[in-house]
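Listing S7. Sequence submitted for prediction.
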Amino acid sequence: MTNKITSLFNIQYPIIQAGMIWNSGWRLASAASNSGILGLIGAGSMYPEVLREHIQKCKKATDKPFGVNVPMLYPNIEEIMNIIVEEDVKIVFTSAGNPKTWTTWLQERGITVVHVVSSVKFALKAQEAGVNAVVAEGFEAGGHNGREETTTLTLIPMVKEQLQIPLIAAGGIATGKSMLAAMVLGADGVQIGSRFVASHESSAHINFKNTVVNTKEGETQLTLKELAPVRLIKNKFFNDVEALYKECPTKEELIALLGRARSKRGMFEGDLDEGELEIGQIAGLIHEIKSVQDIVSEIVAEFKASKQHVSAL
């Protein structure tokens, strides 16, 4: 399966395992890369030296390409970027910031740069900044999202219509069928997050993994748009947020309720009541915790079977 994405990253299948905070440590990234896709370490939940440790362990666990996802709004960004260069990581996915800030600097040091966006406007800005590829992420996605609320089904063809560089689809993709659909719409590859949360190698707490596989349609919702839009499973904390909204809260009151380390508390420590439980709408199709290898094999097999089925129509 050779195309622009497999060639860009030197991988077997045009699939990227998303770099999700508190879920994407070195075990998940290395397992993904060993399965023929691109694994990403999620730097957003890591102090700089913790990131260095994860990169070093990932190198020992795989001889395949892997990368690091860096949300640019996080502190210590300069230290993080320097560690990535020092550890000779060759692929960086940036998000939550201006791609012009780091793209050229990284590329001058031999690093392939991909930027995550949620709209046509920001896809074009990323292309103008010189990134090597763009991830266009629809409204269905878990975690922090764009304010546009554009779904993957409409976002991908709109971005494809104007973009000249490789396009990776994200949001609501967890199966071979959805991968094929995204590529029919114009994507050159797909980025998958939620499905890999419910893997044995994910660094998420087992409580969170079990909650994901039991989540049904309609049990996630985007909230906290005044701060940073985030899709959450509806739990006690989510209900507390909704109750506060009925009082027309100020931004400061929302920040006070959110407090610190909510996502760590929920996804990494397993507090299902008071933590943020970030997952995509596709959780309704995730029914079992499996190994990364099994997940990838199933996606690829279903993609190939679905392609043959569509060709026969």
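Caption to Listing S7: primary sequence and predicted structure tokens for the chain studied. The chain has two domains: 4-204, 206-282. The chain has a mean pLDDT of 96.
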